[in-house]
Amino acid sequence: MPEQQQYTIGNIHFTLCPAPIEEQGFCFTQNQPPAADACVGYLCGDFGSTGTEFYHIWHPQTPALVTDSFREEIAAVVKGLRQNGLLQDRPTMAARVLRFRTAQISSMPGTVLAFRIETPAHTFFLRCTPDKGERNFFLYGYHKARFLEILRQQKGLPRIAWAELDSSHEVVAVRYGETGYRHWDTSGYIAMTPGQIVDQLNGTAQITKAQAAAMKAGALFGWHCPAADPRHYDAQGSPLHRKEAVWQEIR
């Protein structure tokens, strides 16, 4: 079974999936910028002594980010997870977490899982602990644009890069955080192949081939996927084998 769930509440669609290891820290309170400045606040609570109650409290962190859009999206997330998901009750949470093997936070004892939830304008992180006597959930909300900028800086990606489409060999511009690409006018380049144009554009901007490959993958497959990380490529922009990629991450 895929470790992903889709929800639609009203006109808001969102996706829940395990948080990548490098993002699990966002399931905890952030006290230092820039993460603290990107966090709107968090909802925490538990299911009470019976396991079916729903006690919760909201902790604001950046009040200026509490917009109507945020209120709508966090309400939709909570409603969806309460109706059919991890926040329904404690027995349901305990049963559902078995579906998400890669969500486990290995650095913590017991069963503690981290999830990422994508809504149109925000990124949420949900931490679940399905044990009686514990806070059973923490739901952190982040301003999506600010959060993506944090990830961009952590991964060492540029704001824009150029790529050659595999199918049409068209030269396109890719902007970090955006899905898809933009056509790039190549009329001023004489007697150059698309690949040469791309190499010149990226080279002039001091963008490595690993960065360019990661930007292309992010635009096509999503900015949270492993392929959108330049550490997963060699100097020529070719994908590394998994063991090599892990070595690059820990160096």
Category from helices, strands and their pairing = alpha+beta
| Strands ordered across the widest β-sheet | 1-2-5-6-7-3-4
Radius of gyration: 21 Å
Number of strands: 10
- The helix tally amounts to 7
Q: How helical, in percent, are the residues?
A: 25-40%
What about the largest sheet? 7 strands, antiparallel
Quaternary class:
single chain
State the end-to-end distance: 33 Å
Helix and strand element order = EEHEEHHEEEHEEEHHH
Per DSSP, what share of the residues sits in E-state strands of 2 or more residues? 15-25%
- What is the arithmetic mean of pLDDT? 92
Q: What ranges have pLDDT less than 50 throughout 5 or more consecutive residues?
A: 243-251
Shape, principal axes of CA atoms? elongated
Describe this structure in words.
- The chain is of the alpha+beta class.
- Helix content is 29%, strand content 23%.
- It has helices at residues 35-38, 68-84, 90-96, 144-155, 194-204, 209-221, 242-250, and strands at residues 5-9, 12-18, 39-46, 55-60, 113-118, 122-128, 137-143, 160-164, 171-175, 182-183.
- The strands form two sheets. A seven-stranded antiparallel β-sheet has the order 1-2-5-6-7-3-4. Strands 8-9-10 form a three-stranded antiparallel β-sheet.
- A hairpin with a 6-residue loop joins strand 9 and strand 10 (182-183).
- The longest helix is centred in the first third of the chain and has 17 residues, at 68-84.
- The protein is elongated, with a radius of gyration of 21 Å.
- The two termini are 33 Å apart.
- Residues 243-251 have low confidence and may be disordered.
